[in-house]
Amino acid sequence: QVQLVESGGGLVQAGGSLRLSCAASGQTFSSYLMGWFRQAPGKEREFVAAISRYGGNIYHADYVKGRFTISRDNAKAKATVYLQLNSLKPEDTAVYYCAAARTLVSSSRVVVSSAYDYWGQGTQVTVSS
Fold first, then answer.
1. How many C-beta neighbours within 10 Å does residue 67 have?
2. Are 24 and 32 in contact (CB under 8 A)?
3. Residue 44 CA to chain centroid, in angstroms?
């Protein structure tokens, strides 16, 4: 089992940047595919990005390509996945969640929230116009 704690959210003006972090504790961090999802008020949770166990495969939703970047640090002292948010837009306002999948997930399923076993509590990102 793994515990996930997100941080780094906040209020930023359009065009600004934030760096979200998700610290993991528990079982070996490198055993997990890690993903970021977001949920805006009144909308369903949607996929943002995912990164494979050792970072060899990275996936980004089309609407964030070129603006958001996922990365991870598997060092035992770190065990963190990051999401760099650049060129933020008001429509990026949402609660951002990180998630971990302990089983192998096909590339077609990394965008599906049900493929993930563990979730953090979320961090709010608000982008003002």
1. 15
2. yes
3. 16
Scan for tokens 């495969």, then name that residue. Answer: 57
Distances (CA, A) of 22 to 6, 60, 108, 121, 129: 4, 17, 23, 10, 27
Q: Which residues pair with 18 in a beta bridge?
A: 85
CA distance 52 to 31: 9
The per-residue pLDDT string of the chain (129 residues; one tens digit each, 9 = 90 and over) reads 899 999 999 999 999 999 999 999 987 899 999 999 999 999 999 999 999 999 999 999 999 989 999 999 998 888 999 999 999 999 999 999 999 999 888 888 999 999 999 999 999 999 999
Q: Which residue has the tokens 């369903």?
A: 44
Q: Measure the CA–CA gap between 48 and 6, rounded to whole angstroms.
A: 15
Beta strands in the chain (DSSP E): 2-7, 10-13, 18-26, 33-39, 46-51, 58-60, 68-73, 80-85, 94-101, 118-119, 123-128
